[in-house]
Amino acid sequence: MSTNLSRSDAIYASLRRAILEQALKPGTKLPEDSIGDTFGVSRTSARNALLRLASDGLVEIKPNRGAAVAMPTLEEAEEVFALRRCLEREVIDRLCKRMPRDGIDALISHVREEERALQASSPRSIRLAGEFHILLAELTGSKLLIDFISQIVSRSSLILARFGRPHSAECGIDEHIQLIEALKDQDAATAVRIMDHHLHAVEDRAKTDDKDDGPDISEILSRYIVTEDHGSR
Amino acid sequence: MSTNLSRSDAIYASLRRAILEQALKPGTKLPEDSIGDTFGVSRTSARNALLRLASDGLVEIKPNRGAAVAMPTLEEAEEVFALRRCLEREVIDRLCKRMPRDGIDALISHVREEERALQASSPRSIRLAGEFHILLAELTGSKLLIDFISQIVSRSSLILARFGRPHSAECGIDEHIQLIEALKDQDAATAVRIMDHHLHAVEDRAKTDDKDDGPDISEILSRYIVTEDHGSR
DNA sequence: ATCAAATAAATTGCATGCAATCGTCTATTG
DNA sequence: CAATAGACGATTGCATGCAATTTATTTGAT
Question: Which CATH class is domain A7-71+212-224?
Answer without folding.
Answer: mainly alpha
